[in-house]
Structure formats: structure tokens, C-alpha cells
Amino acid sequence: MNILIDNRQDKVDIDGLDKIVEDVIKTALEVEGIVDDVEVSVSFVDNEEIHKLNKYYRNVDRETDVLSFPLVEFEEIYSDIDEENNDEYDAIGPEPIGDIVISLEKAKQQAEEYGHSFIREVAYLTAHSMFHLMGYDHETDEDRKTMREKEDEVMRRLKIER
């Protein structure tokens, strides 16, 4: 597994965030039963940067807390792999599944608004984004419920409370 973390902001201290983000990513993959070698890129940005990205990629002219950029249709990643003979697949290294962009400035604001820790907010946003990378969305009530249950499972396994 390869988790790339890039801090592109200087407004919020990131001490300790690398470890929690890595733990959340690994746990989200475990919840889905994914044990293969994958790569996820995480960027920490400020509100100004995520606003620009949100406008450019989603045509939404405001800041948001997290953006997810899946690189593949997740269910297709493993469809062409012969589980008995995957030496060639193993040789190419981790499969990049996507990029996560988190506004730490927005996460800090939301943690204060919701009355829980900054670490908990970043962990939740990471879990939320990971499930988007793995093909989940929250367009319907049923999808939203499924996604929330998976996010809550990650948080429970890591003992991250509200």
C-alpha cells in the first residue's frame, strides 16, 4: 500500500494527521475486504485552494470540506485479474485508486461547529472520501445510509468517538 500525503497549506498544524489519515485509509479498505496493493494520494489544502478546485472540477463556486477524485471504476480494478496467477499484476506495483483533497481550514471550522475534535473531523472526511473512491455515493437515501454505516464502521474500529 502506498499512501502519499502532501501538505499544501500553512494555516492549520498537521501534527499527527499523517498517522490518522493512513489508519483511516487502511481501515476503510479492510471494511471493504480490499487487501491488494493500492495507492491513494491525499492533499491538505486551505479554503481558497479547495474553492478553486471545487469551481474548476464541479462548477460549484464555494469552498467545501473534501473532494474525491477516483481514478478508476473501482469494481473494475480486480475484474481482469486472475487470482491464481497474478504475478504480472504484482510486478507493476500499487494500483492508484484516486486522490483525496481535504481543506484543513474547513475541517477545523466544522469540528468546532459540530462540537468534536479536529482529528475526528479529518478522520471522518478521509473515510467519507475513501468510500467515494471505492464507488459509493450518497445520491439516494439508501445509498447515503449504506455509506454512513461504512464510515461509522471505520470510526468504530479506530475508536474515534464524536
TrEMBL record:
<keyword id="KW-0540">Nuclease</keyword>
<comment type="similarity">
    <text>Belongs to the endoribonuclease YbeY family.</text>
</comment>
<protein>
    <recommendedName>
        <fullName>Endoribonuclease YbeY</fullName>
        <ecNumber>3.1.-.-</ecNumber>
    </recommendedName>
</protein>
<dbReference type="InterPro" id="IPR023091">
    <property type="entry name" value="MetalPrtase_cat_dom_sf_prd"/>
</dbReference>
<feature type="binding site">
    <location>
        <position position="128"/>
    </location>
    <ligand>
        <name>Zn(2+)</name>
    </ligand>
</feature>
<feature type="binding site">
    <location>
        <position position="132"/>
    </location>
    <ligand>
        <name>Zn(2+)</name>
    </ligand>
</feature>
<keyword id="KW-0690">Ribosome biogenesis</keyword>
<keyword id="KW-0698">rRNA processing</keyword>
<keyword id="KW-0378">Hydrolase</keyword>
<keyword id="KW-0862">Zinc</keyword>
<dbReference type="Pfam" id="PF02130">
    <property type="entry name" value="YbeY"/>
</dbReference>
<keyword id="KW-0963">Cytoplasm</keyword>
<keyword id="KW-0255">Endonuclease</keyword>
<dbReference type="InterPro" id="IPR002036">
    <property type="entry name" value="YbeY"/>
</dbReference>
<feature type="binding site">
    <location>
        <position position="138"/>
    </location>
    <ligand>
        <name>Zn(2+)</name>
    </ligand>
</feature>
<keyword id="KW-0479">Metal-binding</keyword>
<comment type="function">
    <text>Single strand-specific metallo-endoribonuclease involved in late-stage 70S ribosome quality control and in maturation of the 3' terminus of the 16S rRNA.</text>
</comment>
